[in-house]
Design a protein that fits this description.
Layout: E1 12-18, H1 25-33, E2 41-46, H2 53-63, E3 68-72, H3 78-88, E4 93-96, H4 107-118, E5 124-128, H5 137-156, E6 171-174, H6 175-181, H7 193-203, E7 208-215, H8 227-234, H9 236-243, H10 247-267, H11 269-274, E8 275-276, E9 281-282, H12 284-296
Parallel strand pairs: 1-2, 1-4, 2-3, 5-7
Antiparallel strand pairs: 4-6, 5-6, 8-9
């Protein structure tokens, strides 16, 4: 990690939107509180949970070595919960993850170090994610490590590591940049809120970096949703580009959907549902339970 010398250390608060995440919230918060360089504050924004999410967060806060705030945002949608959390941050930096994100122990330290050294150049940053509960992830992890090594070499040589897009499960931005773009953001659930923020930051002249080795594994549960739900989710990308007046990017998004996104979803439909992450093996019984469960919920 970089030596900050006599410079005043930057402060980081982490925002975690949550809706009915009673089972996932404590593992998420435990990893945040156990960082090698703990964040100044953790802000959980409850988005109208009907389960015991809030109760679990409050119990965790009572014993947490890091201050934990619980905010309420009644308007449904991650974008609304995100905005409520970001607006409440008073630290220099805003970190953002999802409830199903399992940050690595040095995640916060890497963010603080990066912005300490490169904050005059970059206003926002994202890292890499693999799915901790899906198969075939070792290959993606190797690719990410190779990309990180290349990015680090480029950064050490004074080169640029611009990425252009934030990933909501593993990202950070300066509070100053948030305040600069806040009024121009549209709180629409029809768009990808992280892509919308990325494009708005770029329109305001802010640069986004891909930080080497900033790792935060996530759940792959999005791939287990029914196809019509997944398609509806994926179409938010086109809506986002459309509302920013970027027809060329919208066309590219359609091509990605047709040639990469949906073929990957369809090819992995069976193995992802047959995989047992606790045992690290495949099971036809698990596949059958997944299909039957989806039918009972009206997903198929």
């Amino acid at each position: 990690m970089a030596d900050t010398g006599a410079r005043t250390p930057l402060t980081l608060s982490v925002v975690v939107p949550a809706f009915d995440e009673g089972d996932a919230i404590e593992p998420c918060l435990t990893r945040l509180a156990a960082q090698t360089v703990p964040p100044s504050r953790i802000i959980v924004v409850d988005n109208g949970s009907r389960d015991d999410t809030v109760a679990r967060v409050r119990r965790f806060a009572d014993r947490s070595p890091v201050p934990v705030d619980v905010l309420s945002e009644p308007t449904k949608g991650t974008v609304h919960a995100r905005t409520r959390g970001y607006d409440a941050v008073t630290s220099d930096l805003i970190g953002r993850i999802d409830v199903d994100t399992h940050v690595e122990p040095d995640w916060a330290a890497r963010i603080v170090d990066f912005f300490t050294d490169h904050g005059e150049t970059y206003s926002a940053a994202s890292g890499f994610c693999v799915a901790y509960d899906l198969p075939f992830q070792d290959r993606f992890a190797r690719v990410h490590r190779s990309l990180s090594e290349s990015a680090q070499t480029l950064l050490d040589a004074g080169g640029d590591i611009d990425n252009g897009r934030l990933f909501g499960s593993n990202m950070a931005l300066s509070r100053a940049a948030w305040r600069d773009v806040r009024a121009d953001l549209e709180d629409s659930t029809a768009k990808f809120e992280d892509l919308d923020l990325s494009l708005t930051l770029t329109e305001h002249g802010h640069r986004i970096a891909l930080v080497p080795f900033l790792s935060a594994p996530i759940s792959g549960r999005r791939y287990l949703t029914p196809i019509r739900h997944y398609v509806r989710y994926a179409l938010r990308e086109m809506t986002t580009y459309d509302r920013h007046g970027l027809p060329a990017e919208k066309r590219k998004a359609w091509v990605r959907l047709a040639t990469v996104t949906m073929p990957f979803y369809l090819v992995m439909w069976i193995p992802f549902r047959a995989y047992d992450p606790e045992r690290g093996s495949f099971s036809m019984r698990r596949l059958a339970r997944s299909v039957v469960g989806a039918r009972r919920l009206g997903w198929t």
